[in-house]
User: What shape does this take?
Amino acid sequence: MTAMQRKRAAVVGTGHRAQLFTEGLARRPHLEVAALCDRNPVRMAHHNRLLTAAGRPEARTYAPDDFEKMLHAEGIEEVVVTTVDATHDAYIVAALRAGCRVVTEKPMTTDADRCRRILDTVAETGAPLAVAFNYRFNPVHERVRNELAAGAIGEVVSVHFEWLLDVRHGADYFRRWHREKANSGGLMVHKAGHHFDLVNWWLGARPRRVYGAGRLAFYGRENGDRHGNRRDYERAHGSAAAADDPFALHLDQNDGLRSLYLDAEGVDGYHRDRNVFGDGITIEDDMAVLARYDSGASMSYHLTAYAPWEGYRVMFNGTGGRLELEVVESRWQEPRARLSSAKGAVHGDAALDNAGGAHLLLRPLWEPPRELEIPEFDHAGHGGGDARMLRTLYDGEPGPAATAVDGALALAVGLAANTSFGSGDAVDIADVVDLPAEAVRVP
Assistant: This one.
């Protein structure tokens, strides 16, 4: 295939997560990253260095106001949206109307009006939209779904899902733009929506009613002062008070973070290393959700963003037994860990001794429990899900790609939970998000 025959792609939003797509597209000879769009030319230059390192030409760069002009001028056919969550809809809608195929980072968007706008545009244009729910592609999660679909525990009656973000990864949502609910929808939308999609997919069911309780219990100025964790600084770089703070992120100690953020500050003033015990945090860090599905199943879910270890436990109770999954991504976090990557700086480094493993246990009725064989657990790339997702999205490999409706179903649980946090009452999802009538059932 010649360069002239390559599909021309654009990446809008060139932060840390966008690197997965820039590098992934650059490795595919049938695709060309022809354009980058961001408000910050320094970050776009970082991505162009990724392209040249992969032996591909630099992409042309555009400001956000020129996004639609870029689509037409560059003949773009594929668009990847990795901007601030609250701006996803503007780029998704414009790209769909221009006839492009769109892949958006999760969450698809952050509120009901934006969600409706996206769904209406998909229906009007017929253009394809995929949401990058990479956890669907994790082989361990796929094994769970296969066991449930095969009836290993009969009818699934209830799911208990506990997700723990440790004091490195969890804290990172409170250093950056995610700490403001207007940008991210809070962790119920940005992070837990990821998990709600898994439950929707595992059950093959639609959520109907949600009750939630959440609070900011650990991060923020008041909590930091009360628990003795707060150091007096606004952002870590250049602050003596942050030097020995285990919660601080030091951008100058990692080449990737320096290039993407520290070197780019002079353009837009964005600080990636704010104090997690500072002011202006409007999201919760401890959240509980109870949901009912159209299948009759219930889900109890809890997200902790300040745990000493990272991982998750999922327990499925069925009429024929119980299925239990435990994944340990980090057994504990060192206060100043040795880091080998930008990802390690915020997620922990799997190369270190604190990495854990995964176990899947089946407990049938009237039989002894047995541990089920699962693929070797890979800490890199979300359990190997990132690479498999890219192969499905861009190479045609079969896989459980998430549609716009899937994105809306995951969002709906998070939005209903946020509403319940404020009202204290259970919330019908139909009263929060106007979802399409059809159910989504992945074979």
In short: The mean pLDDT is 93.
